[in-house]
Each structure stands twice: as structure tokens, then as C-alpha cells.
Amino acid sequence: MKEFDVVIIGAGPGGLTAALYASRANLSVMILDRGIYGGQMNNTAEIENYPGFDSILGPDLSEKMYNSSTRFGAEFGYGTVESVEDKGDVKIIHTDDGDYQAKVLIIATGSEYKKIGVPGEEELSGRGVSYCAVCDGAFFKDQDVAVIGGGDSAVEEGIYLTQLAKSVTIIHRRDQLRAQKVLQDRAFKNDKIKFVWNADVEEIVSEDDKVAGVRYKDKVTGEEHVVPAKGAFIYVGIQPMTEPFKDLGILDENGWIDTDTHMRTNKPGIYAIGDVRKKDLRQVAIAVGEGGIAGQEAFNYIQTLSDKVDAK
Prior knowledge:
With 312 residues, the protein is an alpha/beta fold. The protein has helices spanning 13-24, 58-69, 133-136, 152-161, 181-189, 284-311; strands at residues 2-9, 29-33, 75-78, 81-86, 91-95, 98-107, 111-113, 129-130, 144-148, 167-171, 193-196, 199-207, 210-218, 224-228, 231-234, 238-240, 270-272.
């Protein structure tokens, strides 16, 4: 079993920053991820809202963060985490490629957007299909866009997009929105927002390898229609990637992890950062801030373990 002071599960911006802070404090650190470092940044064509860069490609920012996070000795390893045991002062992390032992566990596995599973969705991701209006809305200035969904996120992001887009069409499979009434009222009063009801989305239509519209079937009449749009923003739900931690007693009823402002869960020595946390705004800059907090807190916690040993 490989032993480290800190094991970080997830190599997105939060996990990489936590590794930087913890290793710079002279702790031994292992970053585990089932894929390439950078997380969802690798699927982002351009990032325009990260301080220090007017614009930077997601993969380029991933590379820069990785190089920075490992320069003080943090290691990176591939592996899918299957489960975690909390044994008090040590945590055992079981992966498909062996086990790890750590004094501190930092969970940075993130979340994933639920897909609608129609033709064009995956192929046009990053080419007009988006799951984040704050991230990508600026690319559709003065253009027609569509929002798929009818909950709080869909309506909130639809309202946000009206500041940039020429028009926003909210496509919903029911005959009324599920969003809070205050959000509904704002949307209904906004002249830039149109609504399509009782619609089953069947395809994201493309032209020249970019989104050109959304094809749907009217559930009442059975007729098919296409909403012209240069962008398709999909909001049918988001889910945390927390299956390996279900037995730790740190998840809420929907699988999210609650923490305090120090990124501490309800289990000593276990921290959570980034999109896996229960929160509203999920952005690179926020994950980086949380990673810095968790990396420093890991050092503070390990100091308390040392103090306990010295006191004996």
C-alpha cells in the first residue's frame, strides 16, 4: 500500500491547486484521476473569465496548472477510485490499480451535466452545445440561442443569456415551468425570451459542424419543428460524481457533499472542493480558491495529528 500525507481524488483546477498548496507545505501528495489532468477544462475551447488571461484554451490552462501543481513534488497517478475507508487518523483509498493510505483525503471529483441523449448533442459539444451560459454565453452575442429545460437553472441561465443573445427560446417538455415563481415571472416579462411547450427534443441540428437549430416533436400534435439557434444550452439536471464515497456518511440525499468554509466535511481529515460541493456557482476561479483553502487546511490538520503524537 502506497502511503502519502495527502491523497487528492480529482485533477481538475481545484484538485491541482490543493496539490500545489499541500506539497509546497512539504507534505507528500498523490493526485489520482481516471483521466487526463485538467478535468472539464479540457472540454472548454476558450476560457475568458479566469484572472490573468484575456483568453486561454482550456487544455492550455490545464497544462499550466498541472506543471505548477507538481513542481514541489506532488505525484500524479491514473486510477479509478472504487471506495474509501475512514479509519480515523488514516484513510484507505481503494482503486482499480491498487490501494493508497493517507492522513488527509481531499475529494475533487466534480459533477457532470445530465445529457438528453439525442443525435448531435455529443458531436456538437463545444461547437454550440453548452451546459454553462456563464462560461460560453459571450460567444453568442447578438445571435439566437435555445435553452433546453424548465427548472431553476434553465430559466436563470435563459435570463442571463438575454444580456448577450439576440433572442432566447426556452424549450420545455411540459406545459409549464418547474422553476421558482419569481424566476418564471422574470422570464415571462422579458421580451427577448420565447417559449416552446410540450416539446420532446429529438436532435441538435448542425450546419458546417456547428449548431444550427433544435429539432423537436410537439407532444400534443405530433408535428416536428426546428427552432433556429446558433447555441443550444442544455439544463436538464446536474449530478455529483460521488459514488465511491457513499459509505462515508458525508453525502446529502442527492449525493452532494456539504462542507464548512474551510472545506471540511463532517469527517475529520476529509475535505471536499470544487463542483462536488453543494453550491450554486461552478467556475474555475472558485474551484481554485477552494483548492487553496483545502491544501492549507490539510497542513493544519496534519499538524494536529503530530501534536497528538507528541502529547502521548
